[in-house]
Amino acid sequence: MTLQQLTFLLILGGGLYLFISERLRVDVTAMLILMALVVTGLLNEQQALSGFSSEPAIIVAAVFVISGGLGATGITEHIGQWIGRASGKSEARVIAVTMPAVAIMASFTHHVMVTAMMLPIMGRLAKTNGLAPSRLLMPMSLAASLGTCLTLVSAPAFLLANNLLKRTGAEGLGVFSITPIGIALVLIGMAYMLLTRWILPKRGVDAEDDGYLRLDRYRTELLIVEGSRWSTRPLAELEKALGDKFRMVGWLRDNKLRRDLGASSPLISGDVLLVEASADALASLHDDAGIDLHAISRFGTRAMGDGDGKPQLVQAVVAPGSEFIGRSIRELDFSHRFKAVIVGLWRRQGHVAPRLADARLREGDLLVLWGRPGRFAELATHHGFLMLVPFAGEAKRRVRAPLALSILAVTVLAAVLEWLPVPLAFLCGAVAIVATRCVDIGQAYREIDVRVFVMIAGVIPLGIAMEQTGTAQLMASGLRHVVADWPVLMILLVLFSIAGLLTQVLSDSATVVLLGPIAVELAQSLTMEPTPFVVCTALGAVVAFLTPIGHHGNLLILGPGQYRFGDFLRVGVPLTVLIALVSAWMTRWLWLDGPLLPGLG
């Protein structure tokens, strides 16, 4: 062993310790490793910074932005709601509908984002149908993980594997090169969960609503404005566009409550809809050019005044002993007194009058206010309010949803048909999402998980150093002595297994960077194509479903599903063995001309 190899192993050991112990954030650890490689002379300046301009880093950042655009335009939420409606009431049907749909969503977006989006939807679905959340959330999380195998761009591990293959002179992978494997794994995962549902724990059936459901009942009023795109269109179309976070309470026409109007009745300019909406829906309603919050249309000019700043929405809680308690919003004449408009009301329990203006305030009521920041600064000091905080709702730019979908489709086509290199295609797609205002620039930057981006940029040079110092060749040589006479299928299973175990304590990206060069050297020493060896290693890093700490999606469902560590082992160990066999078999078939079916070839 040379001095360079010894130095590299010391740096690697220190990095692994920090990754596993989590004493520092993963991105900080990656940067420390990068600095150590430069200071010790194992890498030069250009090699050390190559990760920041690498294809994986660019594609990951672009995918985060495109995912943000799909979320900001309400596409992902709408798909999630469709899944909820299509799932029916039986447990088996919910799993059969949810898993393929979630997998498809995860194929072009970040799987953790998909899991987080589906979590409240599955919670509501379970509560409505009297099902145990623990029987639904684990299959959903598994589907999100398996869905990342449907395309090259959905998991950083596959992008890093592709980058490694190109550095070795191999052809590299296309966007859909691993899709056959992904389809097989999704089908196997769905069949496994349907046939072995009895393994899943049955917990949380009688659990009370979680916190994320408690602020979905803001009472507000909508006005169909003059020249609205909704005018003459039936109410059902508006309800479909706004999804299940919007519920009609009443319909005013010519200032009279109409009980003869229903979902098929056409909307007319000037109609006022009395509704209950979620925070996101309420913010979205204000941003829709065809409808407006009724209170703003009536009193907005008075509230605008001469204050500074762009009008915004905030929340205020009515304090104990407040002078507002027992008085209606109409009596308070809020817009004249405080130069702000009450556009929504949330009440934990109890009746709320159909008309917002007639609602008599109670202690603990949460008011949604609209006005200028300068006025709110004055209002925050008023003893009638317990607190004044930013409004939690995020507007969905639903009118741009078709545009966002079109941009995603063109981006994928440009990458698949090689009109543009894959990184450039996705970068152009991200720029188009921002330029067309599907998502604003500030939110686009917030969508990028900087930790993931920096970690990828930092660990790529680690793989380069492993190759340059000969450490990869040294380790591959040791492994070759053990597996030299083994069938190629067994070798692929070994690589999958090592990666699957290592990814329980490391990220999938770090696992691929460490094991990828070893897989390449092993393949070359056996005079075989390196692609299946690297792909099988990446699959082990991505889809080994063994513990709750192996995937961030598993951590998200751990609490809501009331899972224990042993639940994941009981479900995951047999499943991971099955996935390993399918992954090794499919990679051999795709790249080493192995048989597709047992007993053939």
Automatic annotation (TrEMBL):
<dbReference type="InterPro" id="IPR006037">
    <property type="entry name" value="RCK_C"/>
</dbReference>
<feature type="transmembrane region" description="Helical">
    <location>
        <begin position="571"/>
        <end position="591"/>
    </location>
</feature>
<dbReference type="GO" id="GO:0006813">
    <property type="term" value="P:potassium ion transport"/>
</dbReference>
<dbReference type="InterPro" id="IPR004680">
    <property type="entry name" value="Cit_transptr-like_dom"/>
</dbReference>
<keyword id="KW-0472">Membrane</keyword>
<feature type="transmembrane region" description="Helical">
    <location>
        <begin position="403"/>
        <end position="436"/>
    </location>
</feature>
<dbReference type="Pfam" id="PF02080">
    <property type="entry name" value="TrkA_C"/>
</dbReference>
<keyword id="KW-0813">Transport</keyword>
<feature type="transmembrane region" description="Helical">
    <location>
        <begin position="173"/>
        <end position="195"/>
    </location>
</feature>
<dbReference type="GO" id="GO:0005886">
    <property type="term" value="C:plasma membrane"/>
</dbReference>
<dbReference type="InterPro" id="IPR036721">
    <property type="entry name" value="RCK_C_sf"/>
</dbReference>
<feature type="transmembrane region" description="Helical">
    <location>
        <begin position="486"/>
        <end position="506"/>
    </location>
</feature>
<dbReference type="GO" id="GO:0008324">
    <property type="term" value="F:monoatomic cation transmembrane transporter activity"/>
</dbReference>
<keyword id="KW-1133">Transmembrane helix</keyword>
<feature type="transmembrane region" description="Helical">
    <location>
        <begin position="28"/>
        <end position="44"/>
    </location>
</feature>
<keyword id="KW-0812">Transmembrane</keyword>
<feature type="transmembrane region" description="Helical">
    <location>
        <begin position="95"/>
        <end position="119"/>
    </location>
</feature>
<dbReference type="Pfam" id="PF03600">
    <property type="entry name" value="CitMHS"/>
</dbReference>
<feature type="transmembrane region" description="Helical">
    <location>
        <begin position="56"/>
        <end position="75"/>
    </location>
</feature>
<feature type="domain" description="RCK C-terminal">
    <location>
        <begin position="205"/>
        <end position="291"/>
    </location>
</feature>
<feature type="transmembrane region" description="Helical">
    <location>
        <begin position="448"/>
        <end position="465"/>
    </location>
</feature>
<feature type="transmembrane region" description="Helical">
    <location>
        <begin position="140"/>
        <end position="161"/>
    </location>
</feature>
<feature type="transmembrane region" description="Helical">
    <location>
        <begin position="531"/>
        <end position="550"/>
    </location>
</feature>
<dbReference type="InterPro" id="IPR051679">
    <property type="entry name" value="DASS-Related_Transporters"/>
</dbReference>
<feature type="domain" description="RCK C-terminal">
    <location>
        <begin position="301"/>
        <end position="385"/>
    </location>
</feature>
<protein>
    <submittedName>
        <fullName>SLC13/DASS family transporter</fullName>
    </submittedName>
</protein>
<keyword id="KW-0677">Repeat</keyword>
